[in-house]
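Q: Joint fold for the lines below.
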Amino acid sequence: MSIHKLLPLVLFIVTANAVNKHTTTPPMGWNSYNHYSCYANETQIQSNAQALVDLGLASVGYTYVVPDCGWSAKTRTSEGKITWNETFYPSGFPALGKKLHSLGLMFGIYSGAGTWQCHPEGANYLIQASLGHEKEDAQTFSDWGGDYLKYDNCWADGKNFVVYYPNETDPSARFRKMATEIDAVPRDFVYGICQWGVGNNLERWASKIGNNWRMSNDITNAWHSIFRITNQVVPLARYSKPGGYNDMDMLMVGNGVLTPEESRTHFSIWAMEKSPLFIGAALENNLLDADALKIFSNKEVVAINQDLLGRAAELVRRFSEEEYDVWAGPLAGDGMVVAVINWGATERNITINLPDVGIQSAKKARDVWAATDLDGLDTTYSALIPSHGVKLLRLEGLTKAGEYTGKIGSDGTAFKNVYAFTSSSNYTITITPATASRVSLIIDGKNPITRPVSRSGIITDVSLSAGLHELRVSSRTKSLRLALSDFSKEYQDAPASLSFNVDSTISGSKVVDVSYINYDLSFDKAWSGEGLNVLNATFSVNGGKGKTWRFPISGQSWEEVGTMRIELDGFRNGRNVVNITGVEGKMIVKGVEIWG
Ligand code: GLA
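A: Joint structure:
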């Protein structure tokens, strides 16, 4: 094939990949908005930048400095170029860019896919943004030495400060226009889309053109804001990848409201979700408190954020009445991060079952904030967690859930801590090597049951109630694998009455995967703390006491179904009835899958 025929193909490949060349890990830096609102000036930006260097934060990785809203002038130059407000920035933006570069930092520029910038003074303070001027503004930002573009979404129709979905003009088209223009300029920009996640299918369009995309309304300086944003990232976490991250907003650590525990929890969640980490506190004039500095400087937590796999942790289990969550996600090199978050108002001892995060044991375990190595973990992990606190673990040397090594004695092999996640008579046990055609099993030291073993070592239909057991096998057996037969889970579409019949051959508690839709995004209510992006539903078994769960956002539209795993107690041998009541707001329960 001749060169000129190949050329369009090559160009196509380069354009298609353009966004991912900007960054391989979530961007880190400092942004003026959370502390200075839209009123930061040149001196403040420079002294905060200097402090980033002096406090050692630049060397931890916080290098992008973004003067947020408020910097542009009300009118453009006679050539139609966007320009700076000379009162706030007397030396000008090109000089600011030079200054930042001379400190070894990167220059972030804020604009928006609307007529004017977002500004708390609304129509009383209309200053230039980039809608309709994308080409010349991209060139200007490049001429000024920009390295990052935070692109906001106010005044999208030129008339209303915020244009709510579904009346908003197509955000993907407005944001794509600027993506094309910054890809065309000589400088390499990281493109941060700030559309707040309103409207449908944010990730589907934003991940094609941006490096990170704000997926929620603004963070506020309050603990409830952390819970709200966390509940909105739940369905998006799975899409995180190198060069494409959910942006949970600038950090509030160090802004005087969150306690040190809350700050560590906030920072841990942002880190494991692979959100960009932008410090939003004042660093100049020794304004930063020692706790906050320690948090930002924690290299082990930052390393979780900057992990090259780029995958975000996902919500694995939620215990709403008990007020804690378990989150887990993979790290490069077969490691794993696990976070146990105590959302409650009291310090508590919390025990988690490692099979719930997909593993049976970990040879190496690091309590990240305590900076201590724990003895390896086996099956369970317990810790005292302060109110609003977190246990952040980094695990390595993992064994898959359901894999056990036994202790061989003269009377057979003992397996401790065999974990059944749901009560069922449908467990299968595989033993290696399969030594006999029949073995006896002693479960929890009680009546031995004698069972045939297949050639491949499989014993079927073993009954186990949910929880931990000791299993003794009457033969010499190196390892044991516990699994639930596939046919034992049963999906049922939700009837209008939300009442399900469940037949069981064993009593106890069972795991239930609830399929549901909650796309009731807390946008307007975000500021007051009323909106937490959760809707409640209450479940009861055989008329017993109901238990309530808080269901987070489930997907990217009212069409997308999410699943949350819960556990229900009170099943008995025979026919059971599960009732779901008090389904809040517009939440839809689509069905349940009952394990066991
Ligand atoms: C929007 C953005 C914020 C900040 C403000 C500035 O609300 O989401 O991050 O840039 O505008 O007014």
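Q: Anything notable?
A: Residues 412 and 475 are 4 Å apart (CA to CA). The pocket of alpha-D-galactopyranose is lined by residues 33, 38, 68-69, 118-119, 152, 194, 196, 218 (CB under 6 Å).
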